[in-house]
Each structure stands twice: as structure tokens, then as C-alpha cells.
Design goal:
heterotrimer; A alpha/beta (310); B alpha+beta (99); C alpha/beta (384); B: 99 residues; alpha+beta; Alpha-Beta Plaits; two-stranded antiparallel ribbon; 4 strands; 10% helix; elongated; C: 384 residues; alpha/beta; Rossmann fold; 2 domains; 7-stranded mixed beta sheet; 6-stranded mixed beta sheet
């Protein structure tokens, strides 16, 4: 269904690349693809505040830059605060007539570590203050840039260098933090999840989020072959499987109203997703079964919210 | 052409180390990284553009004959395009060493 | 008026665009008054109370990079929390102003005044002033912005004012007419700004092969901002009749012993100097106003002729000595003829330093040095 739509609609996207080739990401990096698509969605009238992380490092080794739009990296945990500063400067400078009035989108981009862990405070503050900006979290489910350490976004059971598989503990022992729910709890106008394996959906959501007045949050699953120990050519397939198994459902929350973007008559078994990734290879069938139960339960809860228009 | 970082003197650096040339990373040949490279079978291609849209390295460009052609200057050989091509028109082959 | 109010009024007169701050004693009166001015429509600026000091400075960095004139203020723990960003703001060469209402850094927790907070960011690369009284706080707001935004400077600036001792006292302040301020301080014209019309990348990371060059560029720029600092102070003096200098001297010409102070205790020290002079003692006072870039030459000119210096620090580098004394000794070390330096740490966490305390310290220092102890260090006035 949506896959067929992708086949024909790709060429409706702009051919301009605001994220230039020559960046230093790994082969098959879906986070780089996500960033590429975000840049396409928003165009040239954007100012980006970016956290320290994979995307920042691969795109800005002095004296080179992959960015063809204004881009600013400050530190790890303050992306939302820097974006707040950019947004309010634009507002006041236009109000005082020091720069011409023009629609410029303020974009804050950070990884899962820079959003759910160290960046949570700044994000919460910026969402609460209601700045007119878009926050995008590119989630590769660990601190990949520093060598694959666990974050609160690492899924249950995943092996990382700080949640390794040992004799006493087997990988991540906590469940992935639900960042979209945290963002939605701030009662902001728009929250969405997206995945570069569904490029049209991603671009549409980012465009919509960029046009919203007030804060918007988009959470993008970014497959990382290096950290997930998967083959680079499978990055798109894995993203698709994450959606098809219900592990990463694609949905929007618009003014508190949930809407599931794709529903499947039957979710694929999560084993199809898990077996392609080395970070899960130690999981027994029992554990996989427990994980699947919880995934399905949460999926049903999401569907219920969507049906009620809650 | 931006010269590599090891050749800059301190006086040449812009104030605050700002990079003034947008997108100058495009001077960097990431194509040297690859082991495999994509080969297109034009007979099977349906011009859908999925290879182009799924490439994390923006290595595909539309040719005048309406085919998407991989730019080996950037292509890292990840194989996503070959995997996702709906008709199997792209195959990954070992890149021969330059003699 | 209360000095904090005067500081806020100066920020308003300086046409600041974005203010973001987090409340911490004793800076609170500044932000409270600023928010009142904005709420009453007397001041057109984007003002918000953010969720931490780290974010406060981050907001300023983002706003300054976009071309706005920004302001924040903090003390103690707040400064420690945002210290990461202070280094970044300087490396990015973004002009902005921060007023620090100096307060002790925990632990133990204390809300009272000393310089330990600002000493913790000594090396961060901002231009740093220490002021003596309320008028100087007000004046330096304008001087700071004009200096920071100068295309040949482009550094963030700190004004250190002693918490409570200055922030919460009522002093007579001579305000400057708005037309004069506008003439002295034109709108901010950034060298680089974040705007889609001219996309730039700020904050790129640097490999070891280029990092040393970036640091050299920053260091050279901070050092060579000295003539601009002098120039700005001169222009300010021409406008108001109040002239400021990196190092100021009081009755030092023929003095054998010189007190060296920084901050509000300088005024108290001058009273002590007067008293000692009346008793026929050969004492003078050297006041350091510019902390960074450190005025090595001015200090040498002011102090080299003396026999001994009594350096009063209001902070300790625990395990070493007082920071000001370290810099003073470094300044004098290269000279063949140089005075002995005796270092007192006094006024820690707001304990009053009275004129008679200064007399006692000079007495003690002179005796110790005569007995051969030329490099003394002690914390003054501790019981037990």
C-alpha cells in the first residue's frame, strides 16, 4: 500500500540537496538519510541548532561543512535552549525591524542521548515556554558516536558496550523511554513519529511540523548498522520491519488527538526484525516472546488512543 | 577549493572558526571507502527513483536519459540501492583495484 | 537606587534584544526588575526565565549567533553550571554581556559574597571586569556592549560585582541620557550571523591538526583587545567624565607597601590607606579593574617600585594560594627588581573586611616580610 505509493511519489520531492554529499557517516547510515530527508522537507529558509553527536561530527569537520543552510553546533545537552535563543532572536529582530520579515523555521536536531537523557531538561523547558520551533530527535538507540553505549532509548535486551551481554546480565535491562509520549505530555500542538524507510511520510510530517505555530516534536527511528550490528544494505528494510512489527509505530498526535498513520491487519513477528541485528543475537525465544507481548500490548493501547480521538 | 585542515595558518581562520562556504564537504571523496559498487541494468529499471531517495550519501543523480546513475565519487558501497530496487536492476559488484 | 535596579535600567537603556536568566540569590533583583520593565511595556525585549543557568547562557549563545544583543546574569552555582558554555561562547567569538553577582561556590552552601565563582571560569576566554561600586556597574554595561560588539574584538564580557555588598545596596547613580547612550552604543551589526540568505556553519569540530591554530587565533584576539578596551573607556570618559583604567592607583607614588585589591573592597582599602597615611606610613593602593586580559604591563608600572605588596584575594585556589596573587607574581617575576608579595585571603563568603582589617593585614605583612617570610600566604581572620 504505502510502499506502492513510495514508488511513484518519490519524484515529487525536490531534487535539491541541502545536506551535501561528502559527509563522513558510516556506510548505510539511516540517520544520515533521515537528516537528508528533513533538509529536503524544510528547504532553505531554516536555521538548524544541532547537538553533539554522530550527525554533528560527520557533517562539520573544520574547515568543511555538509550544510547548505545555516547550522549551529554548541554543546550536547542544550539544543532546545540554543534553538529557543535563535527563535526569540529572529522574533525580536523582525519585530524591531532590524531584519526583514520572512518565514524562517527554527530546527533543533539531536540524537536519542541528546534528547532523552542529557537534553531532556532543555527540551522540556523549551516545549513548556512554547517557542515556535521544531525539535527532531534522530534515534539510533544508543550513544553511537562515542562507541555504542546505552541510552534510555536503547531497547530492552539490546547489547551495547555499557549494557553488554555477560554472565550475570544480558543486555539492556530497562524498556525504551517513550519520548513522543513525554513530548505529547507537554500539550504541544504536534508530535509525530517517522522513519526514513517511509520517506514520503517523513517529509510530509516534517513539513507539517515546520509549519505549525508553536513547538512541534518529531521522533525519527534511525537504523545504525554499525551499532545494531546489521548489514549496511538492510538499513531501509530494518526500518520498515520496525514499523511492520509494531515496535516503532508511525503515528501523529495533533492537539492531543492520536492518529495511527499505518495499521496492519496482523503485525509481523518481531523475530523477523530481531534476527537481522547482532545486538539481539543473545536473546532466547522466551525473552523474545516477552518482548513481543509487551510490544503488542503497547500497540493496542496506541490504537485505542487513536480510535477514541484522545 | 577549501584546503585541508593541516594546511591552514592561524591568521587564515575566520573569526569564531565559522565555515563560510556552504556544503564544501562535497570536495571530499567518500567513494574511496567502498569495497562494492552498484551496477545498473537499464533494461530492468523502471525509473522509480527509490535508489535515489534511499541513498544516505546523495550519490544518485538523474541523467539526461532519465536514469538515476550512481556517482562513484561519493558512493560508499552500502548496498541499500541494490537491496531496495523493486525490479532488481542494481547489483553490487566488487570494485576492482586500480592498477 | 538599588544597584541591581541600576544594572537592569542600564540593560534597558542599552536596547538589549534577548534576555534569558535563571534566578539565584543575589542576582534576583536584576531579573525581577527586568521582567517588570518588559511586562509594563517599557522595554521591548524577549525576556524569559529558563529552566536552568546552563540553558540561560545557551539561549544567549543562540540569540547572539542570530544577531541579537543579549544579556544574562548569575552567581555561584549557576555560573558553575553554565561554565561549559562560557568556554564555548568565547571560542565562538560571540559578543554578549553577563553580570555576575559574585557569591561563594558551595560546599558549604552560602549565599554571601566572594570571588570563588568567577575564579572558577578564569580561563574561559571572556573579557572580565571587576567593579567597585554601583555607578561602575551601570557604566560598564554600556562600555561592555560597545567593546564586545566591536569588529576588532568580538568577545563576550563579564562584569563582576560583589553580591549583596553591591547588588543589594542603595547608592546614588548618575544615569546617562538615552540620546547619549544611543550615540555611544549603535545597534549590533554582527560579523557573521545565522540567516538563510548567507548560510554559514558555526561550531564545527576541530581535529588536532587545526585546533592549535584556532586557539592561537583566540588567544591573540583576546590579548590584542587591550587597546580597544582602553579606547572604549576613553570614549566613555569623554562622554560622562568618568574615566576607567585597567589598573588604578591611589597614593602609590612614593609608597613602600602597596595593597592590591579587586572589587568592592577597593573602596574600603582606600579608607584604610588614608588612615595609615595620616599616621605617616608609606602605604598605597593598587586596584585591579581589568581581570582578563590580565594587565601585566599596567600592574608592573604601578607596583614594581614598591618594597612589598599585600595582595588581598577574595577566593582561594584550594591547595595553592590566591588567584590574584598568582597573577601578580607572574607579572612581576620577569623583573630583576621586584617587591615581595604577601597574600591574604580575606572576606570569604561575605565576612566584612573593614578598614582596620586592612591595617592589621598590612601590619602583619610588614612584620612577616621583615622577619624573612617573603612569600607568605594566609587566610585572614580565621578563629582557632
Amino acid at each position: 500500500m504505502t510502499e506502492n505509493l513510495n514508488v511513484f511519489a518519490v519524484r515529487t520531492l525536490t531534487q535539491k540537496e541541502y545536506f551535501a554529499p561528502g559527509h563522513r557517516s558510516c556506510q548505510g547510515c539511516a540517520e544520515a538519510l533521515a537528516v537528508r530527508l528533513v533538509a529536503k522537507a524544510l528547504g532553505r529558509n531554516v536555521i538548524i541548532a544541532n547537538a553533539t553527536g554522530c550527525m554533528e561530527i560527520v557533517s562539520s569537520p573544520l574547515p568543511y561543512t555538509s550544510w547548505r543552510v545555516p547550522w549551529f553546533h554548541v554543546a550536547f545537552e542544550n539544543t532546545a535552549a540554543v534553538a529557543s535563543g535563535i527563535e526569540s532572536a529572529l522574533k525580536v529582530l523582525m519585530r524591531k525591524g532590524r531584519i526583514p520579515h520572512k518565514k524562517i523555521i527554527t530546527l533543533a536536531m539531536a540524537g536519542d542521548g541528546g534528547t532523552a537523557d542529557i537534553g531532556l531538561q532543555a527540551l522540556s523547558g523549551a516545549l513548556e515556554r512554547g517557542h515556535n520551533f521544531l525539535y527532531i530527535c534522530t534515534d539510533n538507540e544508543a550513544y553511537m558516536n562515542t562507541g555504542i553505549q546505552r541510552s534510555s532509548s536503547t531497547p530492552f535486551g539490546a547489547s551495547t558496550t555499557t549494557s553488554p551481554v555477560g554472565r550475570v546480565q544480558m543486555g539492556q535491562i530497562t524498556w525504551k523511554k517513550n519520548m513522543p509520549a513525554i513530548a505529547a505530555a507537554h500539550n504541544i500542538p504536534y508530535v509525530a513519529t517517522a522513519c526514513p524507510s517511509y520517506p514520503i511520510d517523513l517529509v510530509q510530517k516534517v513539513k507539517k511540523a515546520g509549519d505549525i505555530e508553536g513547538p512541534a516534536y518529531v521522533h525519527i527511528l534511525s537504523v545504525c548498522p554499525t551499532g545494531w550490528r546489521s548489514a549496511p544494505e538492510l538499513s531501509i528494510k530494518l526500518g520498515r520491519l520496525a514499523v511492520e512489527t509494531g515496535i516503532f509505530p508511525l503515528y501523529e498526535v495533533e492537539r492531543g488527538q492520536y492518529r495511527l498513520n499505518i495499521d496492519f491487519p496482523k503485525l509481523k513477528p518481531i523475530k523477523e526484525y530481531i534476527k537481522l541485528q547482532g545486538r539481539f543475537r543473545h536473546l532466547t525465544d522466551d525473552v523474545i516472546g516477552e518482548i513481543e507481548k509487551r510490544v503488542h500490548r503497547e500497540y493496542e493501547q496506541l490504537k485505542e488512543k487513536a480510535s477514541k480521538g484522545v | 577549493m577549501t584546503k585541508p585542515e593541516s594546511e591552514w595558518t592561524w591568521k587564515e581562520l575566520p573569526v569564531g572558526n565559522v565555515v563560510l562556504e556552504p556544503g564544501n564537504a562535497s570536495q571530499y571523496r567518500t567513494g574511496d571507502w567502498k569495497t562494492l559498487k552498484p551496477i545498473l541494468n537499464k533494461d530492468l529499471c523502471i525509473h522509480c527513483g527509490l535508489c535515489y531517495i534511499y541513498c544516505p550519501d546523495m550519490a544518485y543523480n538523474l541523467s539526461e536519459e532519465n536514469y538515476f546513475i550512481a556517482d562513484l565519487f561519493y558512493c560508499k558501497g552500502c548496498g541499500i540501492c541494490a537491496k531496495e530496487c523493486p525490479t532488481g536492476a542494481i547489483t553490487m559488484v566488487l570494485e576492482e583495484e586500480e592498477k | 537606587m538599588e544597584v541591581s535596579i541600576a544594572a537592569a535600567e542600564a540593560v534597558k537603556q542599552a536596547n538589549v534584544d534577548v534576555i534569558s536568566a535563571y534566578p539565584i540569590t543575589p542576582q534576583t533583583h536584576i531579573v525581577e526588575h527586568l521582567s517588570e520593565l518588559v511586562a509594563n511595556g517599557e522595554f521591548d525585549a524577549e525576556f524569559f526565565c529558563v529552566e536552568s543557568e546552563h540553558s540561560a547562557l545557551s539561549v544567549c549563545v543562540g540569540a547572539a549567533a542570530t544577531g541579537a544583543r543579549t544579556f544574562t546574569c548569575t552567581s555561584s552555582q549557576g555560573l558553575a553550571l553554565m561554565s561549559e558554555i562560557t568556554y564555548i561562547a568565547s571560542g565562538l567569538r560571540l559578543p554578549m554581556l553577563m553580570i555576575i553577582a559574585n557569591r561563594t561556590i558551595s560546599s558549604p552552601l552560602s549565599i554571601w559574597n566572594d570571588h570563588s565563582d568567577t575564579m572558577s571560569i578564569r580561563d574561559c576566554g571572556w573579557i572580565q571586569f571587576f567593579v567597585e561600586n554601583g555607578q561602575e556597574v551601570y557604566d560598564h554595561v554600556f562600555a561592555a556592549y560597545r567593546l564586545a560588539e566591536d569588529r576588532n574584538v568580538l568577545f563576550p564580557v563579564i562584569i563582576n560585582m560583589d553580591g549583596f555588598i553591591l547588588s543589594h545596596v542603595i547608592e546614588p547613580i548618575e544615569m546617562i541620557k538615552q540620546e547619549k547612550v544611543d550615540q555611544f552604543l549603535p545597534p549590533y551589526q554582527p560579523l557573521h550571523r545565522l540567516h538563510p540568505d548567507r548560510p554559514v556553519t558555526m561550531g564545527a569540530f576541530a581535529l588536532p591538526s587545526i585546533f592549535a591554530e584556532t586557539k592561537k587565533a583566540q588567544e591573540e584576539a583576546l590579548r590584542s583587545s587591550m587597546p580597544k578596551i582602553i579606547e572604549t573607556w576613553k570614549a566613555f570618559g569623554d562622554m560622562t567624565g568618568r574615566y576607567y583604567h585597567p589598573v588604578e592607583t591611589y597614593k602609590t607614588e612614593d609608597a613602600d607597601t602597596l595593597l592590591v585589591t579587586m572589587g568592592s573592597c577597593s573602596e574600603t582599602a582606600s579608607v584604610a590607606v588614608d588612615k595609615m597615611r595620616e599616621e605617616g606610613r608609606s602605604v598605597g593602593l593598587v586596584k585591579i579593574r581589568l581581570w582578563r586580559p590580565f594587565p601585566f604591563d599596567d600592574l608592573k608600572k604601578a607596583a614594581l617600585h614598591a618594597k612589598q605588596l599585600v595582595v588581598i584575594d577574595r577566593a582561594i585556589s584550594v591547595g595553592a594560594c590566591g588567584p590574584v596573587a598568582s597573577e601578580v607574581k607572574a607579572a612581576l617575576y620577569g623583573s630583576d627588581q621586584r617587591p615581595s608579595v604577601y597574600n591574604f585571603v580575606a572576606g570569604i563568603s561575605g565576612r566584612d573586611v573593614t578598614p582596620s582589617d586592612f591595617v592589621k593585614m598590612v601590619d602583619k605583612a610588614e612584620i612577616e616580610i621583615e622577619e624573612g617570610n617573603k612569600e607568605g600566604f594566609e587566610i585572614y581572620g580565621v578563629r582557632g
